[in-house]
Amino acid sequence: MKLNIITALSLVTLMMSCGQPVNKEKEEDKKVEEKKEPSAIDVIMNRRSIRSYKPEQIKDNELNTILECGVNAPSALNLQSWEIRVIQNPEILKKIEGSFHNAPTLIVIASAADNFFSPVDCGLLGQNILLAAESMDIGTCVLGNFTAFLNSPEGADVFKSLELSEGYKPLYSIAVGYKNERPEAKPRDKGKIKIIK
Ligand SMILES: Cc1cc2nc3c(=O)[nH]c(=O)nc-3n(C[C@H](O)[C@H](O)[C@H](O)COP(=O)(O)O)c2cc1C
Known about the structure:
This protein is of the alpha+beta class and 197 residues long. It has helices at residues 2-34, 40-46, 60-71, 90-95, 118-135, 145-150, 156-161; strands at 82-87, 105-112, 138-143, 168-178.
């Protein structure tokens, strides 16, 4: 009788220990699947303009990655006809509160006035910034209206603090920060595409 109980217990233990690794493996697989990096297409399709941010600043290594990706954009003749200013100074940000959706980081992109392709270079730089940020689930919003502020008498102080080189003018800016909203995609007009074969 005693022997039978021991045998039964051993059998139960054996069954439990046999089942465990299989379940564990399945769970590990699930975790790997969940953590799967988004593809470039996922990143492009998921990016949206974010107009509400958490107050917490993004990490320096995240900012560095975003900027590194930015300057790796193509540019005509590799002239890199841009200057980039990153504003994280709370005093400066306070002066422009409201005009950039209160993001904790603001990137100002200035184009070279004497370079015909500079707006293209700057646009490609910016798109790399948007997509690099999105790949880390960091929100961005392109700001055209901030340029008008920088060129207005009220924006003169902030403009000066950018210390842009001679011949460079602010073209547009990008608000950057952790997302506080997840807006739906706006409709796109595919009628603007024509494939000529
Ligand atoms: C050159 C340019 C200027 C823009 N200026 C502003 C702006 O001043 N304020 C703002 O909230 N969004 C601005 N946007 C964001 C657009 O409104 C947004 O990209 C568009 O509505 C499509 O939405 P999505 O980015 O979420 O796909 C600008 C976008 C571009 C490309």
